[in-house]
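Bug #77: duplicate submission created two jobs. Keeping one. Sequence:
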Amino acid sequence: MKRISRLKVGVGAVVVAAVLAAVGAKVIASPADAYLAYRNKAAAAVAAARMEDRTGLDQQYTADVNARLAKLIGTVRARGFAAQAEGTVQSVGPVDGMTPGPDGLSFKSDDGKTHLVVTTVPLLKAWASTADAGIKPTDDVAAMFGNETLYTHVFGDDAAAFRFAELPVKRQPADGVVTAWLLGESQDGVPDGPNTLAVSVRQGQRVYILWRSVTLRPIAACGAARVPENTRQACFASQVGAQRIYPRLVAQAQSMADAVVR
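Kept job's structure:
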């Protein structure tokens, strides 16, 4: 039997250890992990500061976090949207009221009618792990796109979002998924119908969430006088395809998706 010298074994062990350490360093130092680590450090620094110093320190850290966020996400090209963006992080300290959506960059369309938030899959999953949103970080992104609570937090207007109907989107990215929803917002139970069109896109590791206000005539068959609240959404979904406005809504959803899908 051929003997292997202790020196060769020792050298091999060192090489393996070095490779494992390098791989571990890459995992720890991923751009998203580095950003989230800094964000947590900033939050801890604000929390540890004297009460009279917290506001100023929070503003400084928030500006820095948003600058790092813009660098992490990179250049965003969306047709019909100005290139200038704002970070969605409004404070690194404790948030009063509703938890904000995932960290990202916020844009508004040139006509002022459509909102866009751009984030990444790692940031979306990091948000899901900390937000009380009923979403698990292990969930597939497509499943997250079907969760009403995601939109409640992203819209951030102190109203809950309710799904009424999914709209078809023909053009899908090869490395991602697109979903389009008609959503209704309310602070007091299920509304009579939708008032928002939302389109969510995952393309590679980037996530786009677009939304705009829409106006639909009430569907009498699905009104409060005809069906109970808990079946209103299902009723609307079964009836909306026959409405005259439906083709226009589908076209709007497709246009919103086409603005970001490459």
